[in-house]
Amino acid sequence: MKIIDNLNDLDQSKHHILHPEDSFEDDLIYQLKSDPTVRVLDQINIQIAEWIKLSNPKVTFSKGALQDEVRKFLKKKGGQFGNWVYYPWNNSIVRILPEDEFIQVRTIRNKYKITEEEQQILRTKKIGIIGLSVGQSVALGLAIERVFGELVIADFDHLELGNMNRIRTSLVNLGVKKTTIVKREIAEIDPYLKVTVFEEGLHDDNMEEFFCEDGTLDLLIEECDNIKMKIQCRLMAKSLGIPVLMDTSDRGMLDIERFDLDSKLPLFNGKLKEFGSESGLLDNFEKKQKQILGAILDFDKLSKRAQESIGEIGKSITNWPQLASSVIMGGGICTHLSREILLGQKIKSGRFYVDLDEIVK
Description:
2 domains
């Protein structure tokens, strides 16, 4: 008997974690597995074998002995052990371990670099990301290391071919919202992670919701192009005591603003002091936007090629150039610092440069 008449009746915008112990969901699993158009991936035995090995680190199992242990495990737990995840966008259903066992196996190679206690702390954290170019690399790094329990992402844009010089994704995603792409990629890495999407980007009407809905953000990673929004989101973060990270993908330029530790810390670590009080930064903004951008970027400290590129915007190029190597490195740096900040490590405010050209000279 069909539970649903059409698979399209399921919400196509998200993945679905299905639990066999629930009779409705078990019937839906059966319907999906019976549908010849649905790709079924059942590798639960391999996952159980991994879990058995990590639970017995002092034991060296032969291939046959490990298979015997898996059979014993399934006999004890029952043939329906595990959950199934249905991904509507690629019409696939995948069998995975229950949440606790899944997390234990997926993060075992983190262990001691990230302790179990730290992993549990990170599981409770909520991170916001504004802008999904560098932000996409950060989001995936955070998800792979499991540095959050919930990720809130905001970007109004769709993927264009020109984005693919720095965003790791597939051509099949052209025209798809960047938020949708990131949410799907994370769901395919770890379906138990929560990702909340603001697909219209961030604006005055949803700013408070982004920062505070269902609990205040523990950390903000700001990677948007809009200069006014860079200021607005910092004013909000400062008022709420939320630390901010920003990677600028030139010379490994990184800004750390610990508003959680210092409520009087000036925006951008004081780069905008010449423009007067922070409450007046947005007054007559269009008239001083270029000067504010120059102050934020600290033009004289940009790489020579970045300086030359800025002069070409509106002439031979339309926007600030970014390279995949810089974006990927920025994603890694922000992931590392996010983890350290959320675990209470002594990370100070300031502007820093991880300039590979200087390091290897």
